[in-house]
Every structure is written in structure tokens, then in C-alpha cells.
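User: Fold this, then the next.

Assistant: Folding the first:
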Amino acid sequence: MCFTIQKLIILLGFFGLISSVWGQSLEIDFILDHQIFEDIKQQPYLETHLYIDSRTLHYKKDKDGLFRSRIQIQTVLTQGEEIKVNEQSILESKGISDTLPLTLSSAHQLDTWRKYLSPGRYTLSVTLLDLQADSSSKVTAVREFEIKPVYKDSVAISDLLFYINKQQSNQQNTLTRADGKDYIPLVTNSTFILQDTLKAYLEVYRTASNTNKPYFITASILQANSNRQLEQYTQTFRKNPSEFDMLNITFPIRELSSQTYQLKIEMFNYKNEIVTQKTFKFFLFNDRVASEELLTNINAFDQKFGYDENQLNQYIEQLRFISTAPELSFAQVLKTYEEKKNYFYAFWEARKSEPTKYTKITEWQSYKSLIDYANQKYKSKLRAGWKTDRGRIMLQYGAPNDVQQYPSMNNTAPYEIWTYNKLGVQPQVIFVFVDKDLITNEYPLVHSTKYGEANNPRWRLDQLSRFQDANTVDYDNLDRDKNLRREFNDVTPR
């Protein structure tokens, strides 16, 4: 197994706009991208890119008089219930004499990570903690992915890496490709804002096992909603068969309008028969160009929804729990009423399914009913119901299969346990909410078995200690307060 970490500080011009959508001022703003590649020996590996907005970090002066940030990165990789990787590292910035330029520029830190893996389904969890902050909460990103088996005679195309530029490598590192060049990744979760050029890198494997004659690869940009291929956005490459090959694709996209696109990669043999293909979705925001589709979506919005701008602003905000990372980026740069109409309509068109004979309820109507329910049932004295933890969980994961409610008893606060039979690949997922203050009806989430959510297996002990002197509670000795604990555990599902 090979495990390497490369830490770089990269100054990237405009792209601070993208990363600034990923949190609030008290949280670290970051984006996590990942790809699957193979090396020249046909061994598959995971590659991740962590892109951190330096403007959301805290800097402190060291003994040398320079300011530095320090982030703790916890990387956990699991396959089913087995933990494959549990690594902790510290990412430290270069020393700077003044932090003021950080508020004016878009300095970022890039952490790149590679790990060889066997075939199977995995869950990657990356948690960041600002070590320089006086008070800082952890922020976590979770990705699920699959490493497919490698068959010796099967042609395959890798994932796509969008990049800013490439340069000759002076030293082998995790940015270096087989051509000896370092590719500086463009980590935006496939969302491009006012981008002039699209640069992409991919790899093709085992073509020599399939043919001994030249083959052709076609790269095309299509409109995602209509699947229509765009004229003048197609490139064809003639390649000789090999066990490992690389492909660099560059498209000018300044004239493309704001919408969702697909980059389609197709491989043909010398008989013009398709051998394999792969598509990659990306989002483009470009207010320099108007589009017919924009006008069509605006008209369709007016007919189907007809919300005024204030209503629409609220509804777009309420989509955040079910939005993809690129969609969140896209929503943050919407300016005009027309752009918001287009976004909202396209958002639900992408999730549209065929109505059955039993119902004509749309996906939006179903989601809005959950919002209304959350506002009615989970409203607190601090905020609307959909903004509370119970509201978020319901909107993000749907209604639970089972809810158990426990009133205040034995010196414990009221709490609820929600159970989902299955979420993604995880069976029997629970969420625990506790009414800590007995006043606001907030019921914050204190524990969950869902990947990426708050996890505190000792939450029961925290419940008991809430009404006791914390210094008198022996968390390591479960016999202490035996009778109280036994009675509490008897009614608390694990």
C-alpha cells in the first residue's frame, strides 16, 4: 500500500468566490473533490483534493514574527464496518508578515491525498478543525464511492480531473502524472463561474488488450437537460493502442450560457464501433451570455410556480439540504429574479420523475410538504422549524421510519430517537435529539450513526451528567450511579 500526502499553498485568483459559499464566518470553508485512477501497473487508487479558503482560517504570530494558520485534518476511510484508514495530519500555512492581504485576495491551501484500494464500496469522511481559533467547531465532508474490479482485457476510462495548469515537475509528488508534469487541480466540485477555458485530464487503460489498430476518442459538450450536442464543441483524438494512455482536453467556454452541461467521452475502434463511454456533469455560470433555454425556463417557471421574488428567495434557501455541492455554489451567485427563476425550475426539472396513476404530486410539492410539516412540528423560540436540527434531518433524509419520544425522567432531559431502515448503503441509521434547555424546543442533534453527522456514543452519560456535577461523574466506570444508569439504559435503544 502506498500512502502519501503533499501539502501546498497555492494562490488562485478568482476562485475564492466559489469556496466562500461553503460555510459561515465561524467555520472553515472548503471543498472536497475525489477521483479514481489507475497507475501504469493497473492498480486502482483514490485521489482527493481538499481546497481550503484561507480567509476563513485564524492566523497567529509565531516566535519568528510571522503569522501562520494550522488545521487538523482527520481522514477516515471505511469499507462497510471496517475502518481502512484513520489518519490525522496538521496542515500549516507558510508564514506571512501581514494577514490583511488575505481579506483582499483569495489565498487558498490545497491538500492532496492518494490511497491504493482494492475493489469495493467505500465511504470517505474528512473533518477539519482550526487549531488557531479560540473557539472552533469541526466541519466534515463525506463522499461515497466505488472502486471497480480491474479486468486485464477490459478497456476503461478514468475519472476526470479539471485543472488550472500543468508544469514540469521538479520532484515526484501527488500532483505528478505519468507524463512527468504537475497538474494543479481546479477544485470547484465541477462548478465554473465566469470561466473562459475548460481544461480536463483523463486516462485510458488497456486499449492494447482490445485492438492492435489505432482507435479514436471523441470529447463533446452536451446540454444536460436536452442531451443535445453543441456544435463546435467536439474534439476527436487519434491514439495508438497501449496499456496506459493520457488525454488532455481543452474547450473555450466563454460563449456558453449559464446551465448544466455534460462532457461526454466516447471511444471508437477503427470500424467506428463504440468501445466504451463516460459522461461527466458540470455547471457553468456565465452572465455574459443569454440563452434560449434561460428564457424557456423563465416562462415555464411563471406558468408552473409563479412565486414572487421574496417567496423564491426563501424557497431557494430551503433547497440547501438536498442540493449538491455544485448547486450550492451556483445558488450563491444568483443575482437577478430571472436567474433565480431559471435555477429553481431547472433544479426540479432535473429531479422530475414520471407521475404514477396514483399521484400527480411533484417532487417540489412533496418537499414543500416536509417544509410545512417541519415548520409546524419543530418550530423553536429561536428559528423556524425547517432550520432546526430535526427539520434539517427530515428535509435531507426524508421522514424517518420510526420515532421514539422519551419525556423527562430520572433527571434527564426529554429526547427523541429517529430510526431510518436504510440511508444510502447504511442500514439502521439513528439520530438522537435532546431538549437540552427545556425552554426553546430546539432539540439539537447530539448523536447519529450516519456518516458525516455528529457522533457521540457517550451521549447517554452526557444526559445523566447534565443534572449532576460533571466532576463527580466517572465516565470510565459504568458501575457508578448503577441503579440510575440501569433504569435509564433499559428504556434507551442502542
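Now the next one, as you asked:
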Amino acid sequence: MRGKNSHVNKLCEVFPRKVLNFVSGPAGLYASQMTSREPPPALRGAAPGGPSPALVRALRKLLRPLVRLMLAHGITYPYLADLLKGLFVEVAEQDFRLDNKTPTDSRVSLVSGVHRKDVARLRGLLASAEPIEPSVVPRGAQLVAHWMGEPKYLLEDGSPRPLARLVSEGGELSFEALVTSVNSDIRSRVVLDEWLALGVVHLDELGRVCLNTAAFVPTRGADEKAFYLGHNLHDHASAAVHNMLAGQPPFMERSVHYNALTPESVERLNRMSEQMGMKVLLAINKAAMEAEAQDRTQAAQEGGVPPDRRFTFGMYFFTERGSDAPAAALPETRDEP
């Protein structure tokens, strides 16, 4: 039946003792552990026909919220593509070695699909202490850099000058001229509407475009959120990928999901999950602190290397409408000058 599962209680009793890969219709308990003993794809070699449609669908689904985050922060496709190029080289070099030997540039190029000249350049950066940063600067960042860096766009106190919207109103000291100087393929009206919606700029009483400089100063809270975004999603994804590649032993990765509930029921389950989840997190935290102190003391007494093994145990709760289909799009509007 839709949204119901009569096997939940029974499965909860056997979950700790069995390795499961179970989904009951659109709802139920899920665990990503696999019992397959096949070697991982890195040892089998790539499938001749390319990745499976199921894997491609999964990748599109998991990347969608990340693309949404990137677009909200002005990270466009060219920037991401440059970032991924370095990451593909790094993973191919470190995780796809044969007999644990350092691969050649040609081998890394073959595995990653990155051109051999780029591989040599990026591996040189990997060997240095310099972080690999994308060479492509997002268009929004270019606009802001021009606005805050070119003398003609600055007031005497060094703050960004309010700009007239159109060239016909302000000539070179206009928002339209600023956008055109960076990229003539995009209409300034499109950028202005987007920036107004994001709070990057505002219009003053004279209708001039004013830059909200505070929008480009990262706050401590934002940096902390970004850190835990990378930490938590990295470890969750690493556990799932380990299981997908038939790694042994499999990592725990389990969830409960239903799709025929009212908002009131979801809110009640959310509160229940938070209350019960915090109890588990506090208990694991207490046990981990005690174990860490004991391990350090033992290593010091034995004169051994300080322990460096880490782990992450986390929980999350997410809700949205049950359909995976995107919301209906609004009628398309034409660009205006």
C-alpha cells in the first residue's frame, strides 16, 4: 500500500544483525550495504557501454541540490568545470593506481579524460603546497571586482559609486556599461533583476544601482556552515560510494522514507527524530571522548604513534513533496534592454 509498510517493526529487529539492501515500494527502510563480492569498478575496468542509466539518474539527483547551491553563490558551469578538472586528476592519481605505483601522465589522462598537457600542469600544482583553484572567475565576481577596483567606479572615499541603470542615462558610469565591459553577451537588465532578487544591489531614491558591499563579506557563520557542508556531505558520500564499489566491510548507511504523509505528520516525525537523534548523538559523543582519552594515554605509555583514525556519525531529516518531478515552470519572459 502507498505510504505504508507493515514490515517496519520486524525489520527493525533484524537490522543490526543482517546486511540489507531493502526498499519496499515508495516507502520503508533503506540500507545501502551490499553483499556482492564482485571487485570494484577500479579493478574490473570501465563498462564498455558507459555508466548504467540507473547510476546516471542517481548522479543527476544527488548533484541537483549542489548545483542549486552553486548557482545561488554565483558559481557557474565554466568555474565548476575548471574545478572538476583538477579534482579528476587528483582522484585518478591517488585512487586508481596499479600495483600502488605512481601513474604516468598518460595513465591519469586515460582514466580521467583530462588532456595530458593539463594533467602535467595540474599534477605539478598537486605536488606543490599551492591549492588548485579554478582559473575561471565567475561572471558575478568579475563584475564586482571591476566595480570595486576601477577608479572611475569609485567615490573619493573608495566606496563603490552608485551607477545609472542605462548608458543613455549615465554613459560609461552606468550599470549597463559595467556589464558590457565584462561580457557583452549578457543584457544588463538580466543581471540587475538577478542581483536585486539576491540582495547584491539595491536602487536608491534616484533609481541608481547601488552595490551592497556587505553581501560580499563572508560571515563567520557562513564559513562554519560551508565547512560542515563539505565535511558532512563528503563523509556521507564516501560511505555510500564505498558501499557502491563493494568495499568490505560495508559502512552503515540507513534511512526511513515515506511519501504519503500530511505536513502535520511530517512535523511530528521531525520533532520525534530530533529528540531521539540527539540522545543517540550525545551518547556516541560521550563514548568517543572517553575512547579518545584512553587511546591517547595508551599510546603515550607505550611510546607509540599517536592515534589518528577518525570517524563521523551523523543524522539528517529532509522533507518535500513526494514527486521527483520539478515544479511547473512559469511562462518564459523576453529579455529587455
